[in-house]
Amino acid sequence: MSGSDRIPGSGVETAREASQSAYQHALDVLTTGVVTLLPIVVTVYVLDAAFGIIFSVLEPVLKVLAHFGLLSVVQQNVVVAFLVEVGIYESAADFVGAITAFLILVAVVVAVGTVARNRYGERLVDLFDFLFASIPGIGSVYRAFRRMGDAMIESEAENFRSVKLVQYPTDGSYMIAFETATTPANVRGATENAAMRTLFVPLAPNPVMGGFLAHFPEEEVLDVDMSVEEGIQGLVTSGMAMDADGFSPAELREFGLDDDTVTALEEDHPDVDA
């Protein structure tokens, strides 16, 4: 490599930095896409498995009904006859089974959601969680997906009180953290420090999918002029939304930010490129 290739600001160095930046951006986009799609894929997989179980239970009953001609009205339906003819369903019994299984699945989901929202239902859900989490091998997987589901239901911004800065993972480097709760008395007693802060130190790009719950001495926690929403936006965009300088509104939208977020960033950073 020639000396000019290593000179900061040279064409080769600029091209290398641009290439690394493009690679990092592509990696961030890919990671964000995977983290976003994973809960959806898991949900679809679970619902599909539940649908298959319900359908398999109904199938023998429906075949018996069809044998005795109790599904003749359905068999004479033009739409059902067409679906059977083109091979989407093997018979009218399969069509009725699929529709019935879907309706039962919807009813079960609605019923579980309704029960889980009242006090006694929460206890039942807790018992169910405990039983599944106690199964060797399955328990750890169930707990992981349970936390994923809770993260989808609850609002991150409502769970976090404020944004802080802490030195982590080494002295001199700082990470964003969210204050989540009052430090328990037993933790303060064990550390012999009455002034403690309980913080969640998240990992980008999804602050609810990974991170560390830590208790810091109050003197090691720095206040930062940033709202919880801004902190979360910065994390999910791998820092790009934390400093909009140098990015035009169109570029910010290419990074996946919605119009409201871009407008807010323009107001906070008047020198954003037009």
Structure description:
This protein has a 5-stranded antiparallel sheet, covered by helices on one side. With about 270 residues, the protein is an alpha+beta fold. Among the domains are: about 45-115, no CATH class; about 155-240, no CATH class. It has helices spanning about 10-65, 70-75, 80-85, 90-115, 120-135, 140-155, 155-160, 185-190, 230-235, 250-255, 260-270; strands spanning about 160-165, 175-180, 195-200, 210-215, 220-225. β1 and β2 form a beta hairpin. The protein contains 11 helices and 5 strands.
In the predicted model, the low-confidence regions spanning at least 5 consecutive residues are none
What is the N-to-C order of secondary-structure elements (H for helix, E for strand)? HHHHHHHEEHEEEHHH
Shape: extended
Reported for the largest beta sheet, the result is:
5 strands, antiparallel
Count of extended strands? 5
Kindly summarize this structure in a few lines.
Among the domains are: 46-117, no CATH class; 156-242, no CATH class. It has 11 helices and 5 strands.
Write the layout of secondary structure elements.
Elements: H1 11-67, H2 72-75, H3 78-85, H4 92-116, H5 119-133, H6 138-153, H7 156-159, E1 162-167, E2 174-181, H8 185-191, E3 196-202, E4 211-217, E5 221-223, H9 228-236, H10 249-254, H11 259-268
Antiparallel strand pairs: 1-2, 1-5, 2-3, 3-4
Helix pairs in contact: 1-4, 4-5
